[in-house]
Amino acid sequence: MTDASVMEHEDEAGFGDYVALLKPRVMSLVVFTALVGLLVAPAGVHPVIGLAATLFIAVGAGASGALNMWYDADIDAMMRRTRNRPVPAGKVSPKEAFAIGITLSVMAVIMLALTTNMVAAALLAFTIFFYAVIYTMWLKRWTPQNIVIGGAAGAFPPMIGWAAATGDISIESILMFALIFIWTPPHFWALALFMKEDYSKAGVPMLTVTHGHATTRRHVLAYTLLLVPVSLGLGLTGIGGPVYLAVAAVLNLWFVKSALDIFRRDEAAAEADGWRAEKAFFRLSLYYLFLHFSALLVEAALRSFDMGGW
Amino acid sequence: MPIAREHELHHRRLGRNVGLAVSLGAFVLVVLAVSMVKMRTEIELLTGAGDRAPAVAEQDR
User: Fold this and answer.
1) Which of A48, A54, A96 to mutate against chain B (most B CBs within 10 Å)?
2) Which of B1, B16, B38 comes nearest A14 by C-beta?
């Protein structure tokens, strides 16, 4: 290899670039919620099957992330937060990202079907389609409600986990879906309030850009209030119990108070203290979801000792 | 022209190849483990062995 040919390959991808293509941070949330969905389900699953199912759900989610990076390379190149992603950085070619996304999607769905059942596999296939086609190709560049409807893609994993264990869809799995679905908009809008992303330059109609920050603040409060009955309702189902309900009550009170803090202030006040309330709300939103699902796990653990539950 | 010295690119390629080999190896192990669990469950169902035996015996009575 000559020096000249080495320079041609200077931007060649390392293994880490291919891992980055699968959005590992999103995958970690998918793994956690899918695992909770699987573990709290009334039907017992062999640990090996459960582990494999979670792995294939994670690979499916990663594959949809690769397809998203393939399609959104033009947008990603324009924004500070995303311009170092493997495709816009020139490490992985768009064709390669597309091939990896499609291959891993097909593999993950088939393997989940073989490992568990068709219901779980169909839900995973729909999730990948929803994220890659409905959200990435259609909603994201078209409507400021992109986050609201697109959030469904991130909400499916616990439902897939539940289906992997039971082969079915039930009120419990629908409410776990609803919890993440309604949680997603305020979580991302809080981020959009304090992140100085150039969404307008990239042609992404974020609510903060199309309708302004005051409307976004109202929307954050509205969705936070909508979240309360879903969160508490889940506690009254077969997978809830006193521990979950106590955790949910405290978290919802805190979350609504934090959303009210955001709603009551204007841009001048936010700018003056460096978006403290918005950042606090965003941080709290992460704990909110994590602790809800952890409380469901605790209830499941207690039930196995004939404690917990209703 | 023979490669006279190692370039950073060679390390990156090695990392990529090792990463791919480990991923494929892990995939094979997962398929193997799942197959073994599935086969054991099937055999237990067919022969009434393992934990299911008392329940099957109860039904037979």
Assistant:
1) A48
2) B16
Residues of A in contact with B15 (CB under 8 A): 14-16
* Amino acid present at A17: D
Q: Please count the CA atoms within 13 angstroms of the CA of A285 that sit on its side-chain side.
A: 25
- What Å distances lie between residue A155 and A8, A30, A196, A272, B55, CA to CA? 42, 9, 26, 35, 39
Q: Which two tokens stand for residue A81?
A: 């937060």
Q: How many DSSP H helices and E strands does chain A contain?
A: 16, 0
Write out the two tokens for A148. Answer: 């609201």
Average pLDDT estimate for B51-56 = 50
- Residues for chain A: how many in total? 310
Q: Under CATH, which architecture does the A1-169 domain have?
A: Orthogonal Bundle (1.10)
- Which of the four pLDDT bands, split at 50, 70 and 90, describes residue A307? confident
First to last CA, chain A: 69
Instruction: Give CA A47 to chain center in angstroms.
Output: 25
Q: Where are the domains of chain B?
A: 30-61
